[in-house]
Amino acid sequence: MIRFAARPLALLALLLLGAGVAQAASPETLRRGAAIARANCSTCHAIGRTGASPNPKSPPFRELSRRYPLSNLEEALGEGIVVGHEGVEMPQFRLDTAQVEALLAYLGSIQKR
């Protein structure tokens, strides 16, 4: 019986650790991530905690984690995202490792929970 009680505690600990990842980013890292989003993504996506996306086909960044884990974006951001949103081409850009980390930290910080 003790073994079964430990599982929910272990799961809770993992969830709490995972939730703290975005909060562990420094304010400067979050500012850099926001600047990257503004420069490369804001013409189509809502990049903040509120507001509609300029392109209705582009999901607001604050809702991305509802679709898939944000960590899934790491490779695509480093190699360059080349897909669009139903007729609207995405600007092609590649981010270095520090930029990817900053953008992912920013994205994590604005997710609707």
What's the short story on this structure?
This protein is mainly α and 113 residues long.
Structural class: mainly alpha
The residue ranges in which pLDDT falls below 50 over 5 or more consecutive positions are: 1-22
| End-to-end CA span | 32 Å
Mean pLDDT: 79
Shape: globular
SS field, number of helical segments: 4
Radius of gyration: 16 Å
Largest sheet: none
Tell me what you see in this structure.
- By secondary structure, this protein is mostly helical.
- Helices cover 51% and strands 0% of the residues.
- The protein has helices at residues 2-23, 27-41, 73-79, 97-110.
- Helix 2 packs across helix 4.
- The two termini are 32 Å apart.
- Mean pLDDT is 79; it is low at 1-22.
What topology does this entry show?
Elements: H1 2-23, H2 27-41, H3 73-79, H4 97-110
Main attributes of the structure:
globular, mainly alpha, disordered N terminus, 51% helix, single chain, 113 residues, 4 helices
